[in-house]
Each structure stands twice: as structure tokens, then as C-alpha cells.
């Protein structure tokens, strides 16, 4: 794995959200996002993934998530290959782990 890509647990991402220091990118499909998503998550489906659609905000942690943690791998790799030089975080266990950890969800 690229050293620029890290795996983070739901509790860490929840802390970043509370601090206002996370940009969450949901790489699931639109119907999955509509059913339930992390508040403020930006939808950029893996099936149409374009790194230029990912908002890069200085001083914020960039976090990719999917349902189980698998689809965010290819999205993270594409982001790194695009020339993005910042740290890329993958939510370990995806939305499933997020909900199991009682993370906030919008429906």
C-alpha cells in the first residue's frame, strides 16, 4: 500500500468531524448514499470516480469511505495517482463499522 494512504478507525473520524477537520468522501453508489450517509459526506461514486471532483481543503483530513472498506481502496489509489500529495485516509470497515460504532448517520 502507498505510504500516503492510511486506514483510520471510526472513532478517529468521529473526532475529526467534531473538530470540523474532516472532508468525508463517500465512494458508494447514489442509492446507498441516499439510504444512509455520514453527515456532510460528499458523494463521488467509485463507478464514476474522478479525483478532480474530490474537494481538497487545506488543514482537513481527507477520508474516503464505502460500505465495508473495500471500494475506498481503489478510490484512494486513484487519488494518489492523480498527483494529490496529502494524506489519504480510508475508513476501516466502512459504513458498516461506522454504524456499529454509533457514528452519526443522515437518511
TrEMBL record:
Rhodanese domain sequence ranges: 18-107
PROSITE patterns according to UniProt: RHODANESE_3
One Pfam short name: Rhodanese
TM annotation in the entry: none
Gene3D superfamilies (alphabetical): Rhodanese-like domain (3.40.250.10)
Organism superkingdom: Bacteria
InterPro entries cross-referenced by the UniProt entry: GlpE_sulfurtransferase (IPR050229), Rhodanese-like_dom (IPR001763), Rhodanese-like_dom_sf (IPR036873)
Entries under PANTHER family matching the protein: FAD-DEPENDENT OXIDOREDUCTASE, NITRIC OXIDE REDUCTASE FLRD-NAD(+) REDUCTASE
Name of the protein described by the UniProt record: Rhodanese-related sulfurtransferase
